[in-house]
């Protein structure tokens, strides 16, 4: 029987070319200018699933962008793996910081990817990682090695909050019934240190608005005599962290899961090089909540960060003005047991209470989602572990991530199934940033490892 390794080496160029073609379509879900391209991408995915051997593929319309669904049911008595991924991408901005155009993929060598990496928006998040599953499916069907049933659900609105996917999942519980959900939309520690993501943070995203005088004012004539909304907003934001970098929002930590000393020690065993971390970011020091390590700060601890702030005059030269309004976008990354709706409310109450006389404050919630922790004592984790062992020759390390995929907790609620996160990207792959890339080695290694998961999961389910 042909091995995945052999099949991949025979079809490597085609596997790369197909991904390159997919990456050329700017499927930016956040920007309605790209509507036709997003829809076109869903059609390309549909065709690719058909070619990969799915029996039944359909484009499912939603109030937003379509979901591509595909399945191959070989035996009702065998387990079913549901693969989830997303075909939409983040906007490429700021475009002038890209070394090559974001939708004209090029393969270049990097220090961490000596065999080359594909540079393009979406290469790692998540077209490249999603497409590994399509190619793994192709391998399994073409060589008669699909061991169980498979369902694909590939959406086009992950980067804008998956609102319509939630709508779809609630309405299609039976159709989506499965034994495990498999997702490649996270990362791993390094190419020689495989890891399985065991946690995702939740999210609460809000926009705040501070309004002072009814018009922009001359900063000489009125300066010092009225509240300046930008000064006020800066002060309010600064007060959201104390001197230990704890978040000051009342009640914020009430439900935060505290890990035991043993759990934290176990976490601390994961390889991490602080000097390399700083060097890669060109910073001379890390920064964060007192009493926690860098790896803890960006995974098991909640955060509050300004993502954008604006107001007043930002054009060329100087303009002496006190703006009538100031704005900021704020994200809070949440950890297990923090409820995003409750945190959003706590933030709103707290932030509004900070407003001094002379201004009004408005807090508008955007979107959010719950965090998720995957069990490591179930067969899905054990099957994934075996899969990595067979292709990397090493036992993967469980690692909680700081990122969010809010739909995962909804899957558990609506479909009653656990998710396994087999990510093959690196943190340094620059997802959401200029020059996003995905290692060619990682792409092919993913295609090789996924069928192993299917095999072991089916075996262990017996
Ligand atoms: N794939 C990422 C999430 C991710 C990346 C998790 C790396 C773990 C490691 C996903 O596409 C994403 O960007 N999610 C958003 C949240 C969403 C609601 C916009 C995020 O984490 O900011
Ligand atoms: Mn993603
Ligand atoms: Mn993303």
TrEMBL record:
Signal peptide: none annotated. Gene3D superfamilies: 3.30.70.360, Zn peptidases (3.40.630.10). Pfam families: M20_dimer (PF07687), Peptidase_M20 (PF01546). InterPro entries: Bact_exopeptidase_dim_dom, Cyt/Met_Dipeptidase, Peptidase_M20, Peptidase_M20_dimer. Residues 199-357 form the Peptidase M20 dimerisation domain. The keyword Protease applies. One of its GO terms (biological process) is proteolysis. GO terms for molecular function: metal ion binding; peptidase activity. PANTHER family: BETA-ALA-HIS DIPEPTIDASE (PTHR43270), SUCCINYL-DIAMINOPIMELATE DESUCCINYLASE (PTHR43270:SF12). NCBIfam families: PRK07907.1, PRK08201.1, PRK09104.1. This is Peptidase M20 dimerisation domain-containing protein. It comes from Patiriisocius marinistellae.
